[in-house]
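Researcher: Quick test of sequence recovery. Tokens follow.
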């Protein structure tokens, strides 16, 4: 995140420009009879995105209010797909699926599903963490900087694997801030985010990012990969997730974006693939899980040159196969929590925990 200060200021300019641009597009569309472009039809959902910091994301739900001018773009339900019949080895298989050759940790897991360990056909495991034998108290996820990607308050073993945005960085909506020192902790095999409002009225979330041992560039990314996280969260009103792959180039929307799970914590989760070559955040594929955050689930993204697939507990909920739209530049994975994009600051009484039992990353290895 070099030049982060410039980007935070730039993000505000882009945010205003985007709202104005969307208003113009909606007006033109209405005058033309409300017809959709081909790319919008393929996306399955016209969802307005507000640009914020390095990570931008969209709420798939109708806004309760807005920060500036009302957003009037129509919202259609994200398309859903039937489970794929294609046999692929998955980090977690359903009872009816073919057994996976991947091994699992022998250590007990608080979520009831241990972390998968090992390579799979077409995939080479490059990172995993199940937080066993790790202990990080609130306050230790501190002194985080982007150059280099580190949080010096962490013990060396954890610092080698994780970093977060510096305390005080604004979230996408600008209503809350990322405060890992006040939000993050690890104990009992769980990475925990205590999402809350402090006594001074500042609402706080966090954005932990796993550090690849051998990234392809200085932005901690890789080209293609499989990403899996097992997590749950309390139904905290006013807050959302946007666990996503963000382009190392920082060229958005042209270089695309891949999000899963994304959604409000008191609602259900969605998956999105923003198109490569897009000129608007409206150009995306969108899929609904229909599943709330309160139970333990495994969310997996498979990103290849030929398809992007989204899996919930080993079952396909979305499959994008138009190669013209699949992002094809390096991306890095960020586990972002933030306030909703509805322009309403979360109530001070809204608080709870988002818990992560494990994460695992594979590189694409078709040979």
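Model:
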């Amino acid at each position: 995140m070099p030049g982060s200060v410039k980007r935070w200021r730039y993000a505000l300019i882009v945010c205003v420009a985007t709202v104005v641009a969307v208003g113009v597009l909606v007006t033109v569309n209405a005058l033309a009879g409300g017809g959709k472009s081909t790319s919008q039809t393929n996306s399955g959902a016209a969802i307005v995105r507000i640009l914020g910091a390095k990570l931008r994301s969209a709420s798939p739900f109708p806004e309760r209010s807005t920060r500036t001018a009302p957003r009037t773009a129509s919202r259609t339900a994200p398309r859903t797909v039937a489970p794929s019949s294609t046999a692929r080895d998955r980090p977690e298989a359903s009872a009816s699926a073919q057994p996976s050759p991947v091994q699992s940790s022998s250590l007990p897991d608080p979520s009831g599903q241990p972390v998968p360990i090992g390579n799979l056909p077409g995939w080479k495991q490059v990172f995993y963490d199940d937080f066993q034998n790790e202990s990080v108290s609130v306050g230790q996820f501190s002194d985080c900087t982007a150059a280099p990607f580190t949080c010096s308050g962490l013990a060396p073993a954890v610092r080698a694997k994780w970093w977060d945005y510096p305390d005080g960085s604004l979230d996408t909506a600008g209503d809350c801030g990322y405060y890992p020192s006040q939000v993050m902790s690890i104990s009992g095999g769980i990475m925990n985010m205590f999402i809350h409002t402090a006594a001074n009225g500042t609402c706080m979330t966090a954005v932990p990012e796993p550090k690849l041992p051998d990234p392809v560039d200085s932005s901690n990314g890789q080209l293609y990969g499989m990403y899996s996280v097992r997590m749950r969260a309390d139904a905290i009103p006013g807050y959302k997730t946007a666990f996503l792959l963000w382009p190392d180039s920082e060229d958005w929307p042209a270089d695309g974006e891949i999000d899963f799970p994304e959604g409000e914590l008191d609602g259900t989760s969605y998956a999105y693939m923003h198109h490569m070559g897009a000129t608007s955040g409206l150009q995306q594929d969108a899929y609904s899980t229909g599943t709330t955050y309160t139970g333990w689930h495994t969310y997996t993204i498979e990103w290849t040159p030929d398809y992007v697939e989204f899996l919930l507990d080993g079952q396909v909920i979305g499959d994008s196969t138009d190669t013209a739209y699949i992002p094809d530049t390096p991306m890095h994975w960020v586990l972002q929590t933030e306030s909703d994009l509805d322009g309403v600051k979360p109530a001070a009484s809204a608080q709870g925990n988002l818990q992560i039992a494990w994460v695992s990353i594979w590189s694409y290895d078709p040979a």
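Residues 1-87, 92-101 have pLDDT under 50 and may be disordered.
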